[in-house]
Design goal:
alpha+beta, five-stranded mixed beta sheet, 5 helices
């Protein structure tokens, strides 16, 4: 049921991008920037969307809005919504903080300094899920989890980055995006961009 509500919300949001707002233009065939892309609603939800033509002509400040209730991220340039993605924010006990932030830094190949695994000298995994501060087995070394295409939002470890996305809260507080959308957002977001999390 929640998956259906999530899909319905994204399809409704997609209508704001469409040049023609008939329902059959939205369900099954999505028209963005005058182009037709025949993809299924499931693909649409999982992949997100970036309106490259709209982004190229839009003017104004950039702003990213994260809706943790809907597990969605919207990207604005001025008053134009040019992109959106499904996401996974912080799970219970590791909630994503709400408020207004700015992108403090960018790192295309960031590694977590807190969460990852422990490997031996040959690279074999000794502990697959490890948190910094736990006992380290003899001969083991910490290997931080990949957080590629990362946008730093706080100085205490909250980033928006590529990762496993289930459209449900799953992370340790970061905002995970699908690989494709993380790369697009990373490439189009300068340091200083406003990020609103609610």
């Amino acid at each position: 049921m929640m998956r259906f509500i999530h899909l319905a919300a994204l399809v409704t949001m997609a209508m704001g991008f469409c040049s023609c707002q008939r329902v059959d233009d939205v369900v099954g065939t999505y028209r963005f920037g005058g182009a037709s892309n025949a993809i299924s609603p499931t693909e649409f939800v999982n992949q997100g969307h970036w309106d490259a033509a709209g982004a190229a002509t839009a003017t104004g400040d950039r702003c990213i809005v994260v809706d943790t209730a809907l597990q969605q991220v919207s990207y604005y340039i001025g008053n134009s919504k040019v992109g959106f993605s499904t996401c996974s924010s912080g799970r219970a006990g590791h909630g994503t903080p709400g408020g207004t932030f700015k992108v403090l830094a960018k790192d295309a190949t960031h590694k977590s300094s807190t969460y990852g695994s422990v490997v031996d000298a040959a690279g074999n995994t000794l502990i697959s899920s490890y948190t910094a501060g736990q006992p380290m087995p003899a001969g083991g070394r910490y290997k931080g989890a990949d957080m590629n295409n990362a946008l730093k939002l706080t100085n205490d470890g909250i980033w928006m980055h590529e990762g496993l996305v289930t459209a449900a809260p799953e992370s340790h507080g970061c905002i995970r995006l699908p690989k494709r959308m993380a790369k697009i957002f990373f490439d189009n977001t300068p340091v200083g961009t406003k990020v609103i999390i609610r």
